[in-house]
Amino acid sequence: MFKKSPVQHILVLIDSTESCARAVDLAASLARALSAKLTGMAIIETDTLHQLLSANVLTGAEVDDFEVGLQDSAGRQLDAACKRAREQGITMQTALLTGNSEVVVPQEVAERGIDLIVLGGFDSNKARFELLFRQRQQIIDHAPCPVLIAR
What we know:
Elements: E1 9-13, H1 18-34, E2 37-44, H2 46-54, H3 60-87, E3 92-98, H4 101-112, E4 116-120, H5 131-142, E5 147-150
Parallel strand pairs: 1-2, 1-4, 2-3, 4-5
Helix pairs in contact: 2-3, 4-5
């Protein structure tokens, strides 16, 4: 009798860090081994940009320009991640989202039927200071499914 794998759909968070590349490699290997779907997701934290606008650190035009730049960068990162996955024989779907990761990720997990999230590793001492590390911690704290950290 064939048993269905408990992991049918894997989500990997895509960003500009070296640990993201390790996470993509691990997620692609798992997807291949488990015959699971793989989705790469980049999140643009617009809440942070709007906080900077509210605090008069950035103007509205600067926020708009910064957001466009972040979208372009995230698109390139997603393309690079897809290439890494293809090198392992896996086709990766992509999603570029905006918003607060602690809200966006649980919604996407539910809507897409994600069974496992793979994140790049991070140094918890830096989590207070760097946005990407804070984003990862929020995902771990609010994820409605298991989270695997790739070191």
